[in-house]
Automatic annotation (TrEMBL):
Residues 2-80 form the Carrier domain. It comes from hydrothermal vent metagenome. This is Carrier domain-containing protein. SUPFAM superfamilies: ACP-like (SSF47336). It holds the Pfam family PP-binding.
């Protein structure tokens, strides 16, 4: 696992609703049960704990074309590499 994987999986686990198992890279985002308030909390925690600024527009789908937690992790890795 990359350095960002485990901390992000922990953040997501803390906000996911109804998961019976811990999230993995393969977990579909749709299965997380995350509402818009949780998205804001997750973004705040990612910025605070991982030191990366996440561009966020409340009028757009924050997950874009992302289908799985792995897609989200890869997008954050890209942001970190640009930093």
């Amino acid at each position: 696992m990359a350095d960002i994987d485990q901390p992000l999986l922990e953040i997501i686990k803390d906000h996911a609703v109804g998961l019976t198992e811990a999230p993995t890279r393969q977990t579909p985002i749709a299965d997380l049960g995350i509402d818009s308030f949780s998205i804001v909390e997750i973004i705040y925690e990612v910025e605070e704990k991982l030191g990366v600024e996440v561009p966020f527009n409340a009028n757009e789908n924050p997950f874009g074309e992302m289908k799985s937690v792995g897609d989200l992790i890869d997008a954050l890795n890209t942001l970190i590499e640009k930093k």
